Amino acid sequence: MIHLSRRGFVASLMQATKRPNILLILADDLGIGDLSCYGGTDVRTPHLDALAKSGMRFTNFYANCTVCSPTRASLMTGCYPDRVGVPGVIRTMPANSWGYLSPRATLLPQMLKPAGYDSTIVGKWHLGLSSPNTPTERGFDHFRGFLGDMMDDYETHRRHGNNYMRRDGQEIDPKGHATDLFTDWTIETIDQKKQFFIYLAYNAPHTPIQPPADWLKKVRTRQPEMTEKRAKLVALVEHMDDGIGRIMARLKANGQLENTVVVFTSDNGGQLDAGGTAGTWRGGKQDMYEGGLRVPMMVSWPGTVSSGTTSEAIGLTMDLYSTLGAIAGVKAPADVDGLSLLPVWRGQTAETPARDLVWMRREGGGPYQGRDYYAFRRGDWKLLQNSPFEPYRLYNLREDPREERDRAAQEAARVRELSASLSRHIQRAASTPWQP
């Protein structure tokens, strides 16, 4: 009898696998200026830098919304969020919850299942707090993480006193910093699975900004002039980066790395009042300006995605749905809004097809009062509101990437044209209920 080492055994499994493993990593509120590979000068993210260097880094990638739940709905369904019942944030309190994931939507793990993928979500779900909209009821085989919108503390993991931490359908109460838990659980999963799809959704660097003390000390020692707010945010990002490095090291040690597609992105722009940045772009989280929507995105796939490449192709979070389906050899449902980025990843084209792009958010509270606000892009022109109570503004992103010169008065006909197209999207999305 031949005895294989652990690494040899895993390598033999990989050779038998017809499709690559998929590791999809989503950060929470990570601004495009908060990674060193995207120009961050006071943050050190060597492992994400290495991931970008090993594959393709996108410079024109957008989240589907300015906040969490809608972007996650787009990631899981390939559709604009209001088309699948998640126009805003799903929260604990029904009076301030603005979405209900449509039962008609086919989620990413359900689409991948016919290709043989064992699917696991680790970390933040944020698409439903109870049946039937829990991860294992919506297609995932396994779940270790939390159902809710955020944690009030990275160590105790509660939200409004509720424990939303689960292992599959069972409530759990693990000890430790959430980032470390999610990293450890991901490593456990890749050690156990033959052909996997893992969706790792960190809650870092979402508020409250609570890095481990040793990571904060490293940043303060290295850059004592940094403000306390910024130092804590940088430390939380660098701690997450270290976790990703541990995961990549385990993939390599297992012999799995060569057969794994690794995708990294963020759900929206950085929270400026919590120390996040958007690089050269205007705005941040909650804003329809570019800083609230542009996010980092990188993909590594040895042998398929050329290393050290940069793409200026325009992509959205929802495009990852069709892209991963194409990788798995399964066809996305006909009514999805996203498109496959696989030709760009393979270097077959430098651009994505021209298309209109829509962003929307519904929110409560004084500034929003349960109403929507929107952005709409066609070519270089971008129409936007940054509040439901202000008129549309119009910017030309090629001439004015900082969105500083409102052209609405001079281009009134264009405003009417773009707003009419946006209205058609609003009508189309209105057929989907967003409350249970």
Question: What report would you give on this structure?
Answer:
With 436 residues, the chain is of the alpha/beta class. The chain folds into 2 domains: 6-345, Alkaline Phosphatase, subunit A (3-Layer(aba) Sandwich); 357-429, 2-Layer Sandwich (Arylsulfatase, C-terminal domain). The protein has 11 helices and 16 strands. It has helices at 6-16, 46-54, 68-77, 108-112, 178-192, 213-222, 228-254, 290-293, 319-328, 342-345, 412-429, and strands at 21-27, 56-62, 118-124, 142-146, 158-159, 162-163, 165-167, 170-171, 196-201, 260-266, 297-300, 309-316, 357-363, 371-378, 381-384, 393-396. The protein has a 10-stranded mixed beta sheet with strand order 8-7-4-3-9-1-10-11-2-12, with helices on both faces. Strands 13-14-15-16 form a 4-stranded antiparallel beta sheet, with helices on one face. Strands 5-6 form a two-stranded antiparallel ribbon. Strand 13 and strand 14 (371-378) form a beta hairpin. The chain is globular. The termini are far apart.
Write the layout of secondary structure elements.
Layout: H1 6-16, E1 21-27, H2 46-54, E2 56-62, H3 68-77, H4 108-112, E3 118-124, E4 142-146, E5 158-159, E6 162-163, E7 165-167, E8 170-171, H5 178-192, E9 196-201, H6 213-222, H7 228-254, E10 260-266, H8 290-293, E11 297-300, E12 309-316, H9 319-328, H10 342-345, E13 357-363, E14 371-378, E15 381-384, E16 393-396, H11 412-429
Parallel strand pairs: 1-9, 1-10, 2-12, 3-4, 3-9
Antiparallel strand pairs: 2-11, 4-7, 5-6, 7-8, 10-11, 13-14, 14-15, 15-16
Helix pairs in contact: 5-7, 6-7
